[in-house]
Amino acid sequence: MNKAVAEFIGTFTLVFFGCGAAVIAGSVVGNLGIAFAFGLAIVAMAYGIGPVSGCHVNPAVSLGALLAGRISSGDFVQYVIAQCLGAIAGAAVLYMIASGKLSGFDIAKQGLGQNGWGPTYLGGYGLGAAFIFEVVATFLFVVVILGSTGTGAPSAMAGLAIGLTLTAIHIVGIQVTGVSVNPARSLGPALLVGGSALSQLWLFIVAPLIGAAAAGFLFASGLLDAKK
Q1: Tens digit of each residue's pLDDT (9 = 90 or more) over 4-20
Q2: How many whole angstroms separate alpha carbon 171 and alpha carbon 38?
Q3: Sign of the CA dihedral with 5 first, then 11, 17, and 19 last
Q4: What is the pLDDT of residue 26?
Q5: 146 and 216 Cβ atoms separated by less than 8 Å
Q6: Would you say 180 and 130 are in contact if contact means Cβ atoms under 8 Å apart?
Q7: Do 126 and 117 touch, CB atoms closer than 8 A?
Q8: What is the distance between the alpha carbons of residues 185 and 15, in angstroms, rounded to a whole number?
Q9: pLDDT in tens, 114-166
C-alpha cells in the first residue's frame, strides 16, 4: 500500500505543478518555465518517493518497467490505479485554485493544461505529428529512466537525469501536443475539461504505451541492459 500512496502523491504533484505552471503562471513563465515545472516536479518526487516506489508516476513508465522485468504485474496494476487517481486529484485541486480567480476562470477557454492537437491547439500540429512525437518522446524518456536506474548506473544522479530529460522533451514538444508521455497526466485534466480534450485522450494513452513498450522490450532483450 505504501507504493500506491507514493505513486498517488507523485502523480498528483506532477499534474499540480506542471499543469499548474501552464494554467496559473503560463503567461509569466512561458513555455520554458512550464517545461522546467514538469521536470523539477519529477526531480523532487524522484528523491521524495523514489525510495518507496521508484517514482514512476506514469503508467507508461510502469509498463516499460514491467516489460523489462523490473516490477511485478501486481505492482503494475497497483501503480496505474494510484497514478490515475493522483492525476485526477491533482487536476481537481488545480481547478479549485484556478476557479478562485476574482476576475473569473472559464475552464472551457483557459483549460487545465490538457493535451491535444489540431489547428486550434497551440502550434497547430496534426494527428500524425502528435502521434509520432508522443511515441518517440516516450520511448526516449523510458530509455533514460530504465538506463539511469539499472545496474551499474550512478543512482544518485538518476532523479536529475530523468527530470532534465522530461524538461527537454517539453521544450521540444509543448507546441506539438502540450507533451503527455504519460497517460495519467493526460487523463486528469481531460476528465475535467471534457470536449476535444476528452475525445483526443486516446492518443495520449496509446502512443505513450507504444513508446514505453518498445523501450521495455529493448531492456528485456538485453540490448540496453548492462546486467545482461
Answers
A1: 999 999 999 999 999 99
A2: 11
A3: negative
A4: 93
A5: yes
A6: no
A7: yes
A8: 6
A9: 999 999 999 999 999 999 999 999 999 999 999 998 877 777 889 999 999 99
Quick check: pTM over 0.90?
yes
The CA distances from residue 74 to 70, 83, 135, 210, in Å, are 12, 14, 25, 21
Whether 115 contacts 177, CB under 8 Å? yes
> Coil, strand or helix: which one is 211?
helix
The one-letter amino acid at 188: G
Mean pLDDT of the chain: 95
User: Among 177, 174, 182, which residue's Cα sits nearest to residue 34?
Assistant: 174
Q: How far is 135 from 126, CA to CA, in rounded Å?
A: 15
CA atoms of 66 and 137, how far apart (whole Å):
19
Which tens digit of pLDDT belongs to each residue from 131-141?
A: 999 999 999 99
